[in-house]
Amino acid sequence: MRVFKPIIAVGGGRKQATAWYVSVQAPDGRWRSIRGFTDKRMTADLGCRIEALVARRVNKEAPDGDLAAWVEGLTPYLRKRLDAIGAMDPRRVAAGKRLTEHLADWRRHLETKSCAPRYVTVAVAAVRGLADAAGMRFLSDIQPDRVEAHLAGLRADRVVGGEAKRGRSDRTRNSHLASIRAFCRWAVFSGRLTADPVARVRAIREEPCRVRRALAAEEVRLLLAATAKEPARYGLTGLQRALVYRVAIETGLRVSELRSLTAGSFDLDGTQPTVTVEARHSKRRRRDTLPVRRDTAETLRAHLAGKLPAAPALAVPSSNRTARMLREDATAAGLDLAGLDFHSLRHTCASLLAAAGVHPRTAQSILRHSDINLTMSRYSHVLVEQESAAVAALPDLAAPPSQAARATGTDDAPARKSFLAPPLRQRADFGAISANYGELKGPAPAKAEDAQEPQDVAETREFSRNNDASDMERAMGFEPTTFSLGS
């Protein structure tokens, strides 16, 4: 290693450089010069660290803790220069880049994949928020405990710009975790990380803080009728807003999908009118074509008349305004606002399909869900009129009890059905029982002439079974037997 000040050309003349340079031997054996600092001692220390880094590179050893921390804090010039002379592992070069640089590369990667602009913005902002809150500057700073602590802090209420902000919901925090996971998986795939640092971070068990409800058919009629009479708001007349609600309920489209529709998205002239959502605007990234009711198609045809195919079809406001727009129109219709926002219209679509007896698989196809449980459990609500009809179908428990059948005996007591089992045979010959047990056999044999009479009991200490029992035994397929009192 050699520390020196070179002679450089300045303005047609030559003079000694201000900064010190260090000359080190690269892994390929060639000597390379690297600009250091204005202090000679600091430049010499830089040369020693570079030599240690080159030695580990030649021996295929990873830098130790101190050396790795020093590499992460290098300036862009030194990191680029060490990479050029081959002193650093490519992964170590990536590890030395600032997290903001990796985020910029990730954003470009998402944009080249034609991801939705809103998704790109939200995902990158989630990772940047983690980096800013946890003080992360490099990829090595992303650790499971720091990520979990950041997600836990998002739940607490906070003050932003002098304004109180509510904490994030469990679902929002899980979406942040999904963005961080996607970023780390991309870093592993591109060779910037050797392992995913958040692979073992579990998602939060969601406790819904907002319970949406679905509108009943009569509530939908009230909403559409009242909205059509309301003045213009949010850039739409009352009739236009009513048409937006109607299309949203009948198709189940999300607000972002409705906003993406153009006049060319509708095919209203065929035998079956349809609306098509392009893959880049669909949540599941597929091109979807959905049917449209014929009466709605007539209204849409009049609404879209004269519009160019690329013109917005419904001019739906931004997502943060649609809920407010719907609630204002619902207030005018006298509806209950509890659990009501624009996404409730998608729940209404699923619930009305279920109430109409539509097959669950068909409803799942219309709503474009990948899981039937999502269609039936989360989006399909039991409407109030369905509950009322179900309760009304119960038997009338207040009616007087029906009169029991009367017996013809002298006491005029109600007849009772006996459930007594026939008496068991005491001395059954199981070896002689037919395999067709339970089938009625032929008529019982005639009584023998020398059959013993009851008056002989005192002498023989044996007696015949009761006649009723004997008849029952015969009916069951057994022969009458006698009981002995013993000798």
Helix and strand topology:
Elements: E1 2-4, E2 7-10, E3 13-16, E4 21-25, E5 31-35, H1 40-58, H2 65-72, H3 76-84, H4 90-96, H5 99-112, H6 117-134, H7 144-153, E6 158-160, E7 163-165, H8 170-189, H9 217-228, H10 238-251, H11 255-260, E8 266-267, E9 274-277, E10 288-291, H12 294-304, H13 319-332, H14 344-355, H15 360-367, H16 372-379, H17 384-392, H18 457-460, E11 462-464, H19 467-476, E12 482-484
Antiparallel strand pairs: 1-4, 2-3, 4-5, 6-7, 8-9, 9-10, 11-12
Looking at this protein, list some descriptive labels.
487 residues; 12 strands; 9% strand; hpI Integrase, Chain A; 19 helices
Provide structural commentary:
The protein has 19 helices and 12 strands. The protein has helices at residues 40-58, 65-72, 76-84, 90-96, 99-112, 117-134, 144-153, 170-189, 217-228, 238-251, 255-260, 294-304, 319-332, 344-355, 360-367, 372-379, 384-392, 457-460, 467-476, and strands spanning 2-4, 7-10, 13-16, 21-25, 31-35, 158-160, 163-165, 266-267, 274-277, 288-291, 462-464, 482-484. Strand 6 (158-160) and strand 7 (163-165) form a beta hairpin.
Q: What is the helix content?
A: 40-55%
Mean pLDDT: 78
Shape: elongated
Number of domains: 4
Category from helices, strands and their pairing: mainly alpha
List unreliable stretches of 5+ residues. 417-422, 424-442, 448-454, 456-466, 481-487
Largest sheet: 3 strands, antiparallel
Q: For the record, what is the CATH homologous superfamily label of the largest domain?
A: Intergrase catalytic core
The total count of helices amounts to: 19
**Number of DSSP strand runs:** 12
Q: What proportion of the residues form beta strands (DSSP E)?
A: 5-15%
Strand order of the largest sheet: 1-4-5
What is the CA–CA distance across the termini? 125 Å
**Broad CATH class of the largest domain:** Mainly Alpha
Radius of gyration computed on alpha carbons:
43 Å
State the CATH topology of the largest domain: hpI Integrase, Chain A
CATH architecture of the largest domain: Orthogonal Bundle
